[in-house]
Amino acid sequence: MDAKNILKIAGLNIGIALFNIILFSPGLMNIRFDTSDALGTALGCTAIFLSLSFFIYGNYKLLTQKVSTVRIDEINNYEDCIAALNQSYGKKTFDNNITTIIEQVEHLKKKKKKIFDLLSQKFDVIDEVYEKFKTTIFDVEYVFFANIKSILNKINAFDEEDYERMHNLFAQKKFSTEIITSKMNIYNEYISFVKNAIEDNEEILLKLDALLLEISKFDTLEIGEIDNMKEIKEMDELIRKSRYYR
Fold it and tell me: Which superkingdom is the protein from (predicted)?
């Protein structure tokens, strides 16, 4: 059972308990089962019935519900991406990285919307200029998601238990420095890869910011002018490089 489900179950049961405390506490609603108070008795019975119903049904649903998982190769949109990232929490070496990547995904989503909103104000959607920008943005988005898929593959392959064991073995000097150093170099490659891929995605966000600024400066553009824009050239170069990356 994952941590979120445990929190939901705890929240449900605490809520039911607080509900009954409020109803039956002398200092609060002070409902009593008394033959002289038919209304109070009816309310008390109803409250107990509802509490038991919510307790049994709510806990049953939360305990038996299946947690849907997103496979890395099935990531096709922002929601899939964030779901897959949330699934990867649990390795403390990368937990902060995952939080950073989720923030990057949210930023990319917002920047993409801003760019297309601005483009739709300045150009017709069937315009060749609009289509050029659209193609570039979608290609960059593809590279961004490809980076995240690679990051997730590295995180999933990373054996944190063995990584920590190597630290302990080094401290205890149970193996030669050469063996432990070789093993740690392998794990450090995982860590460096994730760090570099995150920086690559941050560079994409930076280039999108620059592109948004440039688009805001123009009311009209020819297709040839777009091809010569510094920001478009940089993005095209980034896309070309990504084909040989990893």
Answer: Bacteria
Residue where a domain stops, chosen among 64, 93, 110:
64
Q: Residues with Cβ < 8 Å from 105, sequence gap 6 or more?
A: 78, 81, 82, 85, 148
Indicate the helix (H) or strand (E) that contains 183: helix 177-217
34: which strand partners?
37
Total domain count, the chain:
2
> Does 58 lie in the same domain as 76?
no
122 and 202 fall within a common domain: yes
- Do 126 and 215 share a domain, yes or no? yes
Same domain, yes or no: 188 and 103: yes
Q: What is the pTM of this model?
A: 0.69
- Cα separation, 38 vs 47, whole angstroms: 14
- The pLDDT tens digits for 150-176 are 999 999 999 999 998 887 876 667 778
The radius of gyration computed from the CA coordinates of the chain, to the nearest angstrom, equals 28
The long-range contacts involving 46-53, CB below 8 angstroms and separated by at least 24 positions, are: 47/19, 47/20, 47/23, 48/20, 51/16, 51/19, 51/20
Residues 51, 155: one domain?
Answer: no
DSSP tag of 68: P
Per-residue pLDDT tens over the stretch 91-104? 999 999 999 999 99
State which of 64, 82, 115 marks the end of a domain: 64
Distances (CA, A) of 80 to 70, 72, 75, 198: 7, 9, 5, 18
Cα gap 77→11, rounded to integer Å: 31
Number of helices (H) and strands (E) in the chain: give both, helices first: 9, 0
